[in-house]
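Long-time lurker. I teach an intro course on protein structure, and each term I like to show students one example going from raw sequence to a predicted 3D structure in C-alpha cell notation. This year I'd like something fresh instead of my usual example. Would anyone be willing to generate the C-alpha cells for the chain below so I can use it in lecture? Attribution to the forum is fine with me.
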Amino acid sequence: MSTLADTPDLAAELDATRDALDLLERRSPRRSARLRLDFLDVRTEHTALRLNDTELLTAIRRIRDDTAASTPQRAMTP
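-- Reply from a regular --
Happy to contribute to a lecture. Here you go:
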C-alpha cells in the first residue's frame, strides 16, 4: 500500500482542501465545520487503511468541490 509520501498530488490536494476550508470558515462557519468533519472522517479512514490513496483522493476532491460550491465568488471588478 502506498503512503502519502509516495503521492505528491495527494499531499498537495490535502493542503489545498485545508486552505479552501479555512477560507470558507470566514464566510460560512457551519458549512465549513460540516465539510471539515467529512475531511477528518476520510483522513481517519485512510489512516486506518480502510481507504487506499485513490479513494482518499476522490473523497478529498469531492470535499474540495463542495467547499468551492459553498464559497461565494467575488464579483469581478474592471
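Some talking points for your students: The chain has three helices and no strands. Confidence is low (pLDDT under 50) at residues 1-5.
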